[in-house]
Amino acid sequence: MEIRSVEEEQQSPAVTANVGLPNAALHQVNDGVVEIEIEQDDSGTCGYGPLPIFLKFEDVEYKINGSSRNPVKAAITSVASRLRMEQGNCKHILKGITGNVGPGQILALMGPSGSGKTTLLKLLGGRLDGDIRGKVTYNDTPYGPSLKRRIGFVAQDDVLFPHLTVEETLVFAAFLRLPTEMSRKEKHLRAERIIKELSLERCRHTRVGGVLVKGISGGERKRTSIGYEILVDPSLLFLDEPTSGLDSTSASKLLVILRNLAKAGRTVITTIHQPSSRIFYMFDKLLLISEGQTIYHGNARESMHYFSSLGFVPEIAMNPSEFLLDIATGHVKDISIPETLQGSTDLQEIEVKVIKFLQCKYKTDLEPREKEENYHSVKAPMKLQLSIQIKKDRTSNWVEQFIILSKRTFRERSRDYLDKLRFSQTVGVAVLLGLLWWKSNIGTEAQLRDQVVNKTQTVRLLLLA
Ligand SMILES: Nc1ncnc2c1ncn2[C@@H]1O[C@H](COP(=O)(O)OP(=O)(O)OP(=O)(O)O)[C@@H](O)[C@H]1O
């Protein structure tokens, strides 16, 4: 299958398919050739709608080298390497991962803890340096600085200001990150639209909160972090375990939001631990990783069928993600396995055999097809390849940013310092210290020294009490 832009090929389409984009469609013409037609964005977003991005990655490898110039780090890493690193000082985290995902789709990265999901997510999001091998392209173009503004990354531990309200968080972000060509009103409207889109109306005036400050709920917090990222209309949205810590209903609601974001033309990639069945069936694609290697990549719904064709069938009713994680760890209790893997009673031996078997099967059965599709037959149209290299509109200059940041910091800090509890604490301590020194006998230097010793002991006793 080849993808060409309509400008490149002027043939009448025979089949038209929806790629999940409001402004793009695939037209199959002949000999399996496919064209992408992209319409001009008239949505009133000042040409700021998401640009369709096809992400492809092939044979991606990542190693961490323990050697460091910093002596302390070097000592720590050398101990770590002796304890757990493979091949001396080097840890091989990703071992040749291939895949792709397009606009309108959600790709779920699943696998046991430590399998390399977050590492792959960061690598694809251009957030990883070091020993990276393989090929990662965005519309068949390598990563470049112009892509930065087209990528949104929601990390597992969000960094939001606890004393700002949800609305303030988004409005300050809009002023900082949106292009200077947009008026103040437009920026406010954009923040307003995000609040509605992410159903944050109920908590818009509530403080975000943190460890010591009461604030919004975990789900609202996640949605605020997503809102912060989608303010600038990214084409690619990466999320690291967005549903962790949420109950199943809040997690499903969040997935519906991600679905809608994808439907609007974004490419969404998310790591997820153990989604419920309802959530699992919302994913378009699945990449299942075991010990840094792929054991399945393809349509999420077809994954169960693939594993049953290999002889892995659940013997009791199981949630698909539970089943997939079990086989990715080689834990096959209540799962029937192919005859070739039977015979051993040592559980650890079975686990190793199962993982190796699945890794080999993927390499021989699925990977060649993926590679063929990725780089030999499916090509992004020239128009998309060029658009991705154009920098998005200019944001505010450093003086404007300095002013906005100062305002934000002032609001955040002033609320912290003028917090009622903190204020009464400060006044209380001041009154107490004043009373301690009131009418103290400090006429001479010796008397002053005695008083200082006495007061210090009293304060210490008070603090201990
Ligand atoms: N900077 C680092 N130095 C050493 N090892 C690392 C580093 N970063 C990641 N690793 C290791 O790489 C492996 C994969 O880590 P990663 O965070 O990608 O796993 P994960 O699948 O996302 O796990 P989890 O689901 O628990 O978040 C782990 O064994 C981890 O310890």
UniProtKB/TrEMBL annotation:
Lipid bilayer topology: Multi-pass membrane protein
Any GO MF annotation of the entry: ATP binding
ABC transporter domain residues: 55-316
Entry GO CC: membrane
Signal sequence range: none
SUPFAM superfamilies cross-referenced by the UniProt entry: P-loop containing nucleoside triphosphate hydrolases
Keyword ATP-binding set for record: yes
CDD domains the UniProt entry points to: ABCG_EPDR (cd03213)
UniProt KW keywords: ATP-binding, Membrane, Nucleotide-binding, Transmembrane, Transmembrane helix, Transport
Compartments, as annotated in UniProt: Membrane
InterPro entries xref list: AAA+_ATPase (IPR003593), ABC_transporter-like_ATP-bd (IPR003439), ABCG_dom (IPR043926), ABCG_transporters (IPR050352), P-loop_NTPase (IPR027417)
Pfam families linked: ABC2_membrane_7, ABC_tran
Family designation: Belongs to the ABC transporter superfamily. ABCG family. Eye pigment precursor importer (TC 3.A.1.204) subfamily.
Name recorded for this polypeptide: ABC transporter domain-containing protein
